[in-house]
Each structure stands twice: as structure tokens, then as C-alpha cells.
Amino acid sequence: MRYSARALPAYRFLPGRDPHPTADPRGHSVDSAPWFEIGGCAPADWADCAPYLYGVDCFNHGFWWESHEAWEPLWRGLDSESVQGHYVQGLIQAANALLKRRMGRPSAVARLRRETRRHLEWVSVARYMGLEVVAWRAGIDHCLAQPGAGFPGIYLKA
Predict the structure, then answer these.
(1) Which Pfam family is one of this chain's hits (predicted)?
(2) Beta strand pairing status for 131-132 and 127-128?
(3) Can you state the angle between helices 133-145 and 106-120, rounded to 10 degrees?
(4) Which of 55, 58, 114 is nearest to 88 (CA)?
(5) Are 42 and 50 in contact (CB under 8 A)?
(6) What are the CA-CA distances from residue 25 to residues 69, 76, 151 (Å)?
(7) Is residue 56's pLDDT more than 80?
(8) Does the pLDDT value for residue 53 go beyond 80?
(9) Nearest CA to 129 among 62, 58, 74?
(10) Is pTM beyond 0.90 here?
(11) Is the Cβ–Cβ distance between 11 and 3 less than 8 Å?
């Protein structure tokens, strides 16, 4: 399932293996404008929040670096100490942890797992910005604790 119409990148960037998407002339996004402008969206408006939805699409298709890049401008437009700021930061940390897992960096995964959990614990409602947060938080925590575990996708509901 896709949440945005924007095409996924040509490849899943893995540092040390692939051309950097924006800094290398061979990168998949080198000639494109920034993916999104810095700015937040109200939590209730998540279904119309382009960087959020594109980040979810990237995440669900294993584009860990790219999901982080999509969510970063959204996070920068938020109060980092708000529930929404912590929520988006938790998603970013989860994507980063999965990227580090793919890179074979278990100590970084362990640190980012703790950060993911800490940020997502700020959300006290069962569903936030379309995501069943409590269940997903448990799933991503299990995934990051078990090196071979599959990752839980982010499935949004109105």
C-alpha cells in the first residue's frame, strides 16, 4: 500500500556502498530540488502531510535513509519538545536504526533502539497521526532487539 503519489527513489542508499543521493553526481536525487520545505503540519492533518506520507512510503519499502530525509524537514518545522516532535523523531530514529542494522552496526542499533523507544513513549494515545503507536512501538522494539527479525510496516488508518 502506498500513501503518496511521489515515485520511490531509484535505489535504497547504503552509505559506503552507493553513490550519495544528493552529494554524488551519480546520486538518485542529485539534480532534484529539496524533497520538502521545512515546515510542520497539525497532527490532525496527517493525511494531507506530504513529507509524512512519503516518509511512510519510503520506510515501508526499505528506503531507510530516504525516509529519514523525507521526515527531517517535517521534524525541523515542529517544536522538538512537543508530542508530535518526539513522535516524528522516533520514526526518524527507527529508520536510522534499521539502516545501521543493514550496515552491520549492532552498537548503533542498540543506541538508536533506546532513542526510538524514548521518543515514541511521549505518545500516550493508542492512535496518533494514523498509526497504532503502542502496537507499532512494540513491533519496532522487537525488530531492533532481534537482528534477523522483519520490520513492522507503518500502516495508517483514518
Answers:
(1) DUF309
(2) antiparallel
(3) 170
(4) 55
(5) no
(6) 18, 27, 31
(7) yes
(8) yes
(9) 74
(10) yes
(11) no
Range list of β-strands (E), 6-140: 127-128, 131-132
Q: What angle do CA 48, 52, 56 make, to 5 degrees?
A: 120
Q: What are phi and psi of 24, to 5 degrees?
A: -100, 135
Topology (CATH level 3) of domain 44-145 = Hyaluronidase domain-like (1.10.3450)
User: Among residues 86, 83, 98, which one has the least CA distance to residue 153?
Assistant: 98
Task: Report pLDDT digits (tens) over 117-138.
Answer: 999 999 999 999 999 999 999 9
Determine whether 53 is exposed, middle or buried from the number of CB atoms within 10 Å of its CB (0-12, 13-18, 19+): buried
Whole-number Å distance between alpha carbons of 153 and 79: 26
